[in-house]
Amino acid sequence: MSDIVTSPQNERVKALIRLRERKERDATGRMLIEEIRVIGRALEAGHKLHEAWFCPAMLDATPDGPAALSALRRHGVELVEVSQRVMDKIAYRNNPEGLLVVGALLNPLPDDLELPAEPLLLVLHDVEKPGNLGAVLRTASGAGIDGVLVTGGADLGNPNTLRASTGAAFTVPCASGSPDSILAFLRERNLKLIAATPDSDLLHTDVDLTGGSAIVLGAEDRGLPDDWLEAADHCVRIPMHGVADSLNVSVAAAVLAYEAERQRRIG
Questions:
Q1: Which helix (H) or strand (E) element contains residue 150?
Q2: Suppose 154 and one of 52, 121, 133, 148 were both cysteines; which one would form an S-S bond, judging by CB atoms 3.0 to 4.6 Å apart?
Q3: Residue 113 Cα to chain centre, angstroms
Q4: How far apart are CA 259 and CA 264, in angstroms?
Q5: What is the mean pLDDT of residues 25-30?
Q6: CA triple 74-79-84, angle to 5 deg
Q7: What is the DSSP letter of 133?
Q8: In 3-state terms, what secondary structure has residue 187?
Q9: What are the domain boundaries of the chain?
């Protein structure tokens, strides 16, 4: 372990802060991971972790903080001790726990995924809010989704995506790509495409979600573009009552994912 880093102007500190930006994550292949629970799940999943920055005083006051640092040490992760001033500077979240880890970027291609013969996938097109993307990954874990494909919008390596997923980003197979490449991937595997749209007459409970299927959801404000709707085998809607005409995309994903889970379980 090197000397304690006390200056926010340290070049390594500056490089760390740049990882908050997507272009820097893409250029370096690295991302920031915060929160003890999320870091622990990344470690348990065998995700590549490059270095861990920690402030002893803050970490000692955090439940499971010392244990998390010990686990990182046992796995051979480089440890960098910092002052509280530096930790406040590099932490992405408010009220940091005193631990920040740099890990390999989550950015596999769809062809890299290992999927069962008849998978159930979620496809997210242009979902812009990383918190929503993370919430969908959390739902995917709970509902037993076999993979999540992301095109456009928020990226899998955004710190808020990882935090909102509560670590599910490291356990749910996920990949990203262009709309054309993801659509080609789905067609090559003869998967049934189920597009969610409020303009359909077909309810989500009236379509067969067993067998190899991909449920496609669009951006929070715009929904799915015409090319996805035209490519779909079925367009479905979730019934809405009252004045609201749509659901948050993470809520809609949960409704559709658990309907698919129900059908597959009883089938």
A1: strand 147-151
A2: 133
A3: 15
A4: 9
A5: 97
A6: 130
A7: H
A8: helix
A9: 11-104, 110-266
CATH superfamily name and code, 110-266? SPOUT methyltransferase, trefoil knot domain (3.40.1280.10)
Predicted local distance difference test score (pLDDT) of residue 2: 55
Mean pLDDT of 158-186: 96
Q: Please give the DSSP secondary-structure letter assigned to residue 191.
A: P
Q: Which whole-number Å values give the CA distances from 131 to 36, 138, 161, 163, in the listed order? A: 18, 11, 5, 8
Residues recorded for the chain? 267
DSSP 12: H
**Sign of the dihedral defined by the CA atoms of residues 258, 262, 264, 265, in that order:** positive
The tokens for 74 are 């046992």
Q: What fold, for 11-104?
A: 60s Ribosomal Protein L30; Chain: A; (3.30.1330)
**In this structure, is the dihedral angle defined by the CA atoms of residues 259, 262, 264 and 267, taken in order, positive or negative?**
negative
For residue 79, the cross-strand partners are 52
The yes-or-no verdict on residue 1 having pLDDT over 80 is no
Give the separation between CA 195 and CA 204, rounded to whole angstroms: 10
* 40, 69, 100 from 65: Cα distances, Å: 10, 6, 11
Residue with tokens 């994550």: 25
The chain-wide mean pLDDT, for the chain, equals 95
Residue 210 is encoded by which pair of tokens?
A: 């067993």
Euclidean distance between CA atoms 169 and 185, whole angstroms? 21
Q: What is the mean pLDDT of residues 194-203?
A: 94
Q: Are 119 and 149 in contact (CB under 8 A)?
A: no
Beta strand pairing status for 78-81 and 99-104? unpaired
